[in-house]
Write a structure and sequence with these properties.
- There is one protein chain.
- The protein is built from 3 helices and 5 strands; from the N terminus they run H-E-E-E-H-E-E-H.
- The protein is of the alpha+beta class.
- Bound molecules: adenosine monophosphate (AMP) and zinc ion.
- Adenosine monophosphate (AMP) binds near residues 30, 32, 94 and 95.
- This is HIT family protein.
Length: about 140
């Protein structure tokens, strides 16, 4: 997509520090890193979120995420990772081209885990929420 910053990175119009690339995706260092080696992984085909993304391409894209982690592992040797994506503006997504953040983690690096992103469960308990999904409780 012409006006998409990540499509422009794919087309090399905008430079990047590549961590891994194949025909399906590109992984590059985040320009504002929140951890050493913070990497953004994108599919080469434009889609705003995973819900707009072609099912057929998902497997190839997640293989790129794995290859990128393997590369980070070999070069930076982190103790662990936090991996995820911001989805929609309420979820913190700024760039409207699906991207997975890979944050290499080290013991005692001062960061939190996914549970530290939000702690606002609302008034409904899981049993009430479950009813909204119908008769699927085990
Ligand atoms: P978000 O959409 O909030 O999940 O995050 C978008 C991420 O892309 C941010 O962490 C930015 O620092 C990063 N970013 C934006 N533009 C570039 C760029 N040209 N090169 C590398 N990273 C970028
Ligand atoms: Zn795009």
């Amino acid at each position: 997509m012409k006006d998409c910053i990540f499509c422009r990175i794919v087309s090399k119009e905008i430079p990047n520090y590549t961590v891994f690339e194949d025909t399906h995706g590109l992984a590059f260092l985040d320009i504002h890193p929140r951890a050493k080696g913070h990497t953004v992984v994108i599919p080469k085909v434009h889609a705003e979120t995973v819900l707009d993304f072609d099912d057929e391409l998902l497997g190839d894209f997640f293989r790129v995420v794995k290859r990128t982690q393997e590369r980070l592992d070999r070069v930076l040797h982190p103790d662990g990772y936090t991996v995820g994506w911001n989805h929609g503006s309420a979820g913190g997504q700024l760039v409207p081209h699906i991207h997975v953040h890979i944050l290499p983690r080290w013991e005692n690096d001062g960061g939190g885990n996914i549970h530290s992103i939000i702690d606002n469960p609302g008034a409904m308990i899981p049993e009430q929420i479950a009813k909204m999904f119908g008769d699927h409780a085990v």
